[in-house]
Write a structure and sequence with these properties.
The chain has 215 residues and is of the alpha/beta class. It is built from seven helices and ten strands. The strands form two sheets. The protein has an eight-stranded mixed β-sheet, with helices on both faces. Strands 8-9 form a two-stranded antiparallel ribbon. The two termini are 31 Å apart. The structure holds 5-O-phosphono-beta-D-ribofuranosylamine.
Length: 215
Amino acid sequence: MAARRRTAVLISGRGSNMAALIDAAAAPAYPAEIALVLSNRATAGGLENARTAGIATAAVSYKAAGPAAAEAEIAAILEAHGVELVCLAGYMRLLSAGFVARWHDRMINIHPSLLPAFPGLDTHERALAADVKLHGCTVHFVRHEMDTGPIIAQAAVPVLAGDTPERLATRVLAAEHVLYPKALALVASGAVRVVDGHCVLDHPPKEDGRMLLSL
Ligand code: GRF
C-alpha cells in the first residue's frame, strides 16, 4: 500500500467535519492520515475532540501577533509535522495569497453550498431566499479568492417544504460528513488532478467514485 498522505485539518469551531475526516482516516486503507489539527482559536471544541482521538493539535492566535506572523507560525508547524495536504474545515480566517500559493493543489476546503452558488456566509438563508430546489455542499481546491477553485466533488440535498435555515443546515451538514472524506480520499490517493483549472479523475475508484453524490 502507498504511504498515507500526512494531512492537517484547520478548524475554528466545533469541528464536526474534522471528526468525519478523523473517523474515515481510522481505516488503515484510507489514503490519508490526520497528522495534525490546528485552530486559530484555542477554545475551539474540535481541538479537544482531536486530542481525545490521539491527534497532535496546535492553536495559533492571529490576535497576538497579527496575520502575517500567525501564518508564518502555521507554516512552520505544518512543516514540523511533515504535512503534505491541508483540509480547511470551518476555518474562519482568510489565508494570504502567498500562503495559498505555497499550498497550490495541496489545500482543499468544504463549503456549505453548491458552488459557484452562494459563496461566503449564511448560505442556507440565502438558498431559501432564492427558492432553489437543490442545495448542498462542495469540496474544492483552494484559490486566493474566497470559495473559488477547482471543484473536486459536490453533494446535493433537496430543499423541502417548510425548511428553515437550521433544518436545511442539518441536512447539508450530514452530506458534508459523507462528502469530505470521499473527496480527501480522491486527492490523497492521487486519483484527482487539476488540468487547466478543472479537476480530472485519472484513475476513477471502482466503487463510489462519483464526483457528485445525491444524498
Ligand atoms: C461547515 O458547514 C463547513 O461547510 C463550513 O463551516 C462549517 C464548519 O462546521 N465551512 P464544523 O466545524 O465542521 O462542524
